[in-house]
Write a structure and sequence with these properties.
Alpha-Beta Plaits, binds magnesium ion, globular, single chain, ten-stranded mixed sheet, 2 domains, 9 helices, alpha+beta, binds fructose -6-phosphate, four-stranded antiparallel sheet
C-alpha cells in the first residue's frame, strides 16, 4: 500500500512569550483535523514542541496535495482565532500570507513529507525542534547515515553497506530549490564541506542506495526568505523511516547525546546546545535552550500505534544535565565571540543600524 506521511507545523501563538501553545489552541487545531480530515486521512497526530504545533498525517494523496495542505492551513487559522481570543503572544505569526494558494510551502508553515510503499512493519520517527533552524539536523543525520563510528549497521547490515544518497539544499537560494546530490561513502568529504555550514546548506532528504527507498525528509524552509525579513527561527520537523534497509532507531537517536551547538535560542540570534527533550516540552532558560523531541510510531495500513516518547528514557536525563551545563557555560560569555550568531543570521536589525551610525563616526588618523 502506498502511503504518504505529511508533517505541517507552525507557531501560531504561545503563552507567556515563546513558551508553549495553550491547551485550548492545541485542542482547536486537533478538533479541526478530526472534523474536516476524516474522509482524507488514514490517521493523524497533533502535538507541540516549545511554541510550535505539528500536524502529522497519513494519507494516500501524495506529497504536496492541495486538500491536505488546505486542511492544515485552515486548522492553523482555527487555532489562530483561539490564540487571538486568549491574547497569546505572536498569534498567527507563521501564517505569512492572507489567502491559501494551493500549497503551504512558501506561506510560513514548515513542511516535510514523503510517499513510500508501506513495509509489513513500518517503524518511523517524527522529530520536532524549537528555537533553532533546519541545519540543526545536519550533524545527527551525517553521523547516523554516513559514519560507521556511530552506525555499526553501515558495516554489519548487507542492505546498508552500499551507503546512502544525501540531497542537500542551498537554502539561501530563493528563486527555487537549488539542490545537490552526493553519495556516502564516496563523497564523504564533500558532504562534510557543505553540512558544516548549517545556515546555508541543509539536508533535505536521504535515500538508500541499495533499494532506492527514501529514509528521511526534513523541512527546509527559511522564514526570512519568505517574509523578506526575520520572523523567528524556522523550528524544523523531520521524519525518518528506521530498521531493515535503514539505520536502527538507536543509531538515529545516538548523535543527540552530543548536544551540539546550533543556531537559535534567545531572539533567534545565538549559538546554544541542542537539548533532546520529552514530547510536549516547554521552553525556559534564555528562551531556550534549543530543543528537539522525537516520537516513535509503528504504522500499518496508514494507521499509527500509540506514540512512544524516544527521549523520555532516564538515559537522556544525564544528557540533559550535560547540555544544561554547556548552555550555562556558553551564556557566561554573553554577546562575545561564538556565543552570538554572525551578522547575517541575527534575527533583529538593531546591531546593523547601530553599526551604520558608528561607521560615520570613524575617521582616518593623519
Ligand atoms: C522561535 C522563537 C524565536 C523568536 C524570537 C523573536 O520559536 O520563538 O526565534 O521568534 O526570539 O521573538 P520576538 O518576536 O518576541 O521578538
Ligand atoms: Mg516562536
Ligand atoms: Mg518555535
Amino acid at each position: 500500500m502506498k502511503i504518504t506521511l505529511s508533517v505541517i507545523k507552525a507557531d501560531i501563538g504561545s503563552i507567556g512569550g515563546h513558551i508553549r501553545p495553550s491547551q485550548r489552541l492545541i485542542g482547536a487545531v486537533r478538533s479541526h483535523i478530526m472534523q474536516h480530515g476524516n474522509d482524507m486521512l488514514r490517521d493523524s497526530h497533533v502535538s507541540s514542541t516549545g511554541d510550535d504545533i505539528a500536524i502529522l498525517m497519513a494519507h494516500e494523496r501524495g506529497p504536496g496535495d492541495e486538500e491536505i495542505h488546505r486542511l492544515a492551513w485552515e486548522a492553523f487559522l482555527a487555532g489562530t482565532a483561539v490564540a487571538q481570543e486568549q491574547g497569546l503572544y505572536g498569534a498567527g505569526q507563521d501564517l505569512l500570507k492572507d489567502a491559501f494558494s494551493g500549497n503551504v510551502r512558501g506561506m510560513g508553515p514548515a513542511v516535510c513529507e514523503f510517499e513510500f510503499d508501506e513495509r509489513p512493519s513500518e517503524p518511523f520517527l517524527f522529530f520536532a525542534a524549537d528555537k533553532t533552524d533546519p541545519g540543526a539536523y545536519n550533524l545527527p543525520l551525517y553521523l547516523a547515515f554516513a559514519d560507521p563510528m556511530n552506525t555499526p549497521g553501515l558495516m554489519l547490515a548487507p542492505s546498508m553497506t552500499a551507503g546512502f544518497r544525501f540531497v542537500i539544499m542551498d537554502v539561501n537560494h530563493t528563486e527555487g530549490d537549488r539542490i545537490i546530490e552526493l553519495e556516502a561513502p564516496e563523497d564523504l568529504y564533500d558532504i562534510a564541506v557543505l553540512l558544516r555550514d548549517t545556515e546555508r546548506y541543509v539536508v533535505e532528504s536521504i535515500w538508500s542506495r541499495a533499494s532506492g527507498e527514501q529514509a528521511v525528509t526534513v523541512s527546509t524552509s527559511r522564514l526570512h526568505n519568505i517574509a523578506g525579513k526575520y520572523t523567528g527561527k524556522d523550528d524544523p520537523v523531520m521524519l525518518v523511516r528506521v530498521q531493515k534497509d535503514f539505520p536502527a532507531t538507536g543509531e538515529i537517536l545516538a548523535p543527540y547525546a552530543i548536544g551540539p551547538y546550533v543556531a537559535g535560542c534567545m531572539r533567534g540570534s545565538h549559538q546554544m546546545p541542542l537539548m533532546p527533550v520529552p514530547r510536549n516540552s516547554d521552553i525556559s532558560y534564555f528562551d531556550g535552550p534549543p530543543v528537539v523531541s522525537c516520537t516513535a510510531f509503528s504504522m500499518h495500513d496508514g494507521k499509527f500505534t500509540e506514540p512512544v516518547d524516544a527521549f523520555a528514557h532516564p538515559f537522556w536525563d544525564k544528557v540533559r544535565d550535560r547540555v544544561a551545563d554547556k548552555a550555562i557555560d556558553m551564556r557566561r560569555q554573553g554577546f562575545f565571540g561564538a556565543a552570538m550568531l554572525p551578522m547575517s543570521e541575527l534575527e533583529y536589525t538593531g546591531i546593523m543600524e547601530k553599526l551604520q551610525v558608528l561607521d560615520g563616526r570613524f575617521r582616518l588618523r593623519d
